[in-house]
Amino acid sequence: MRVLPARRVRGLGFAQCIELLRQIAELHRSQALHQQRLGLGQRVVKRRVDHLLDAALGILGGAADRKDARPAHGFMDIEQRHRGQIARQRPAAAMAFFRLHVAGFFQARHGAAHDHGIGGQHLRQLLVIDAGQRRNRFAEHSHGFLTQDGSRAADIAAVARAQILAYDTVQWLDARATGARRTEEGFAIDIEGGATRRAKRLILASGVVDTLPDLPGLAQRWGRQVFHCPYCHGYELQQGRIGVLATSELAMHQALLLPDWGPTTLLLNDRFTPDAQQRAQLQARGVQIEAGAVREIAGHADAVLADGRVLAFDGLFTAPQSRVESPVARALGCEITENPMGAVIQTDALKATSVAHVFACGDAARFGGSVPLAVGDGTMAGLAAHRSLVFAAH
After folding, report:
1. Alpha carbon distances (Å) from 352 to 85, 284, 311, 313, 324
2. What is the pLDDT of residues 207-216, one digit of tens each?
3. Is pLDDT above 60 for 331?
4. How far is the CA of 39 from the CAs of 31, 34, 44, 124, in angstroms?
5. 261 with 230: CB under 8 angstroms?
């Protein structure tokens, strides 16, 4: 029996651990039902319990031992690599999906993996290749995801990983995929520092990289006092003062939305000049307009203007440009869609890309980041990939 040191309970992710313990108890209670109806032996149920308990201990230990998981220099760590070594060669997977070295929606990948896990009784082999960088790692908490509102993103990821690995059909590889190519059997996936892996289908959940405005002090506050989505972080500002830092005409969209969360000021930042009609729209929404360049972000979320004035805010919003960093998508020839917000992998309604048997989901395949939308995307991609395997054989 594991014994948890008392020092590890300080600052724990309480709601997540309670949920994990509830699931552990439920697994114990339903062991007989699993054996009778699903043919799962005691070994499989015990493995599921162990995975959930490990995740709970990880949350407890991380909460107690972590001082601040966020890098001190904001996006300075965006190119760090998490290198995974392969201990031994495994058989080819029926499906593989992965994120690259940059942040992507971890939840999109888990949506796809969990779909296959729930259908894990079909015994298709699934390989998850994960470099461990989530796009939302800079945010204190995740919001807008039913049953997980206010949870730490890392805690959500830990629970999801534990639940996915409870299935015998899933393998997890902590590594970075550097490329992929077609083979007679399907695809070969190049792994940084490891052996090539093979699969019949690919699901790309690589996420995107956010290119922030080049403004001193902004990157260090990204995800804490500077945001991009009012639906994710607007309520937490509690009707405080909100600034919108313009990077293009897209700032109009944020400036018109945000007054519902607090008094809003549009900082034109020499990047955008609203015309008469746009000014009338802003005035109707009660938005203040500040002309001139912003020199830096200081204090909590203070905009220091080029003329020396300092405008204090409770939170700032800006629209970064996002781009797909996945070398896999481009190596395979997947079509990319671009607009003023950035670039994503083009997919159809079933999350199929322009390349046969390659699917994409989450932020890598849609504009506008959202955890629940990413989960839904992953589920659809998982269903479509599995069905393509089944019906291709008939």
Report:
1. 30, 42, 46, 43, 16
2. 888 889 999 9
3. yes
4. 10, 6, 10, 17
5. yes
Distances in whole angstroms, Cα of residue 234 to Cα of each of 102, 120, 167, 227, 313: 26, 39, 38, 9, 13
Residue 312 confidence (pLDDT) above 90 = yes
Please say whether the beta carbons of 133 and 52 come within 8 A. Answer: no
Give the whole-angstrom CA distance, residue 11 versus residue 115: 32
Q: Does residue 141 register a pLDDT over 60?
A: yes
| Distances in whole angstroms, Cα of residue 12 to Cα of each of 68, 145, 149, 169, 344 | 14, 20, 16, 31, 36
Distance CA 230, CA 210 (A): 17
Residue 53 DSSP one-character state: H
The C-alpha atoms of residue 339 and residue 329 are separated, in whole angstroms, by: 18
Mean pLDDT of 133-154: 77
Please say whether the beta carbons of 204 and 97 come within 8 A: yes
Q: Are strands 294-298 and 177-182 parallel, antiparallel or unpaired?
A: unpaired
Considering only residues 57 and 361, tell me which one the structure prediction assigns the higher pLDDT: 361
Written as six digits, the tokens of 109 are 């990948």
pLDDT score, position 104: 32
Tokens read off for 16: 């997540």
* Range with lowest mean pLDDT among 84-98, 144-158, 162-176, 298-312: 84-98
pTM: 0.71
Q: Could you tell me how far CA 176 lies from the centroid of its own chain?
A: 16
pLDDT of 49 reads 60
Residue 61: name the closest of 25, 24, 118, 16 by CA. Answer: 16
Q: Phi and psi (nearest 5°) for 104?
A: -140, 175
Residue where the block lists tokens 């990047």: 271
What is the pLDDT averaged over residues 3-25? 52
Q: Residue 231 and residue 170: Cα distance in Å, rounded?
A: 34
CA proximity to 13, closest of 49, 50, 66, 51: 66
Q: What integer pLDDT is reported at residue 48 of this predicted model?
A: 58
d(CA 353, CA 323) in angstroms, rounded, equals: 17
**What stretches of 79-139 adopt beta strand conformation (E)?**
93-98, 126-130
Q: Are 78 and 102 in contact (CB under 8 A)?
A: yes
Q: Read off the amino acid at residue 218.
A: L
> What is the rounded distance in angstroms from the CA atom of residue 113 to the CA atom of residue 186?
19
pLDDT at 86 over 50: no
